[in-house]
Amino acid sequence: MKKFELPKKIPVFPLSNFIIFPKTTVPLNIFEPRYIDMINESMRSNKFIGMIQPMNSNSADKTRPDLHKIGCLGKITSFRETEDGRYLIELKGLIRFEIINELKTDKKYREFVVTFEKFQNDLDIKKEDLKFSDLELIFKDLKSLFEKRGFIINWKELEKQSLDETINALAMASPFSLEEKQILLEAKNLDIRKNKIAEILSTYTYDLFNNTTLQ
Question: What region, left, alpha or beta, does residue 93 occupy, with left being phi > 0 and alpha being psi -120 to 50 degrees?
């Protein structure tokens, strides 16, 4: 995808407890009327939707909460309508965006002017210069955390993917808090994201392996 093909304005789906990373694909179940409208409009145009986290503030206006500044642009790659009128879609994360400002429209959903300037590397096909051997300890600790929390991960399948796909998939699926996942999403590049995962894991692994010392 070339830079000039990226939209200047996008519909945004502010979804709590949900973050999508570049180079990952996630299923979504759409049933709210305003987001049905948003999917219809998106399917008629470029199939792009911005996914972003609402802030954890007690905003007076629950229908238009304050949002984080950084989200991820997704493209609808699969679409199916159910008998009861819901949309089951798959969304592929492409590139992160930063919000510039919200547009005033008559639509029920929200649209924003965004910039992708800081995140052009998300579109690179080239592999980052990191080796799986560098990540063995992180993966080992992450595996322990996943197992402790009852998460099932097919590690053999993961290892067939590129390194960036693997790290992003693990960051997205991990049992980290949403604030921690937002930090990972905003990490400038894969190397920083790897280090942030290690930092976050260190707090969890202390609890995992030294919990006999905790009161």
Answer: beta
Please count the residues of the chain.
Answer: 215
Q: What pLDDT does residue 58 have?
A: 52
The CA distances from residue 154 to 23, 24, 137, in Å, are 18, 15, 17
The letter for the amino acid at 17 is: N
CA–CA distances in Å: residue 150 to residues 45, 127, 172, 178, 179: 40, 31, 16, 18, 21
Q: Which pairs from 196-200 meet CB under 8 Å and 24+ separation?
A: 197/138, 197/142, 197/167, 197/170, 197/171, 198/137, 198/138, 200/176
**Domain ranges in the chain?**
3-123, 132-213
pLDDT one-digit tens code per residue, 90-116: 999 999 999 999 999 999 999 999 999
34-87 tens-digit pLDDT: 999 999 999 999 999 999 999 875 545 566 889 999 999 999 999 999 999 999
Task: For residue 49, give the nearest of 79, 29, 76, 18 by alpha carbon.
Answer: 76
Token pair recorded at residue 158:
């993961």
Query: Under CATH, what is the fold of the domain 3-123?
Result: 2.30.130
CA dihedral over 175, 180, 181, 184, signed as positive or negative: negative
Q: Chain centroid to CA 160: how far?
A: 21
Span 189-197, average pLDDT: 86
pLDDT of 156 above 90: no
